[in-house]
């Protein structure tokens, strides 16, 4: 921790991982953590509503869940492969397998319930990898 951070007490900003077609496999499919992906577009009003929810989830579940964001204009191949047809769409994946899909805006409590019941519970019940 740097001296300015000690002085002012601010935490470093945690942001969602930005996905594109090139980094999707490494960031999502090879992740040791469960993954949430927010698929959004620039012209989508509900996507803008969802943004603060996703930012809060990123901060609150840091280290337990990897939160990613994917602009559908940049991730066309991924969207086609995953069948993303509308925005916002939030995917929840555990070990690269889709556990849940939510289309449209839902509030923070809705997303937290899925994370806690479907992702964090599975991850804490999974046996630890050897050598870690």
SSE order and pairing:
Blueprint lengths: L2 H6 L8 E2 L5 H6 L5 E6 L4 H16 L5 E6 L4 H7 L6 E6 L2 E7 L4 H18 L7
Parallel strand pairs: 1-3, 2-3
Antiparallel strand pairs: 2-4, 4-5
Describe this structure in words.
The protein has 132 residues and is of the alpha/beta class. It contains five helices and five strands. Strands 1-3-2-4-5 form a five-stranded mixed beta sheet. The model has no long low-confidence stretch (mean pLDDT 89).
Mean pLDDT: 89
- DSSP helix count? 5
Classify the helix fraction into a percent range.
Answer: 40-55%
What is the β-strand count?
Answer: 5
Number of domains: 1
Order of strands in the sheet with the most strands? 1-3-2-4-5
- CATH-defined fold name: Glutaredoxin
Q: Which structural class best describes the helix and strand composition?
A: alpha/beta
Outline: globular
CATH hierarchy: architecture: 3-Layer(aba) Sandwich
* Low-confidence sequence ranges: none
Topology as H/E string? HEHEHEHEEH
User: What's the CATH superfamily, by name?
Assistant: Glutaredoxin
Strand proportion, as a percent range, falls in: 15-25%
Biggest β-sheet, characterized? 5 strands, mixed
In short:
By secondary structure, the chain is an alpha/beta fold. It has helices spanning 3-8, 24-29, 45-60, 76-82, 108-125; strands at residues 17-18, 35-40, 66-71, 89-94, 97-103. The radius of gyration is 16 Å and the shape is globular.
């Amino acid at each position: 921790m740097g001296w300015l951070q000690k002085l002012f007490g601010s935490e470093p900003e945690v942001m969602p991982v930005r996905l594109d077609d090139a980094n999707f496999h490494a960031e999502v499919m090879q992740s040791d953590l469960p993954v949430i992906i927010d698929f959004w577009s620039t012209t989508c009003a509900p996507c803008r509503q969802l943004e603060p929810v996703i930012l809060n989830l990123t901060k609150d579940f840091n280290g337990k869940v990897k939160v990613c964001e994917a602009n559908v204009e940049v991730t066309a191949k991924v969207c086609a492969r995953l069948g993303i047809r509308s925005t916002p769409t939030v995917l929840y994946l555990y070990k690269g397998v889709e556990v849940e899909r939510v289309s449209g805006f839902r509030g923070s409590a809705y997303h937290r319930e899925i994370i806690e019941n479907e992702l964090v519970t599975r991850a804490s019940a999974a046996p630890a990898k050897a050598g870690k």
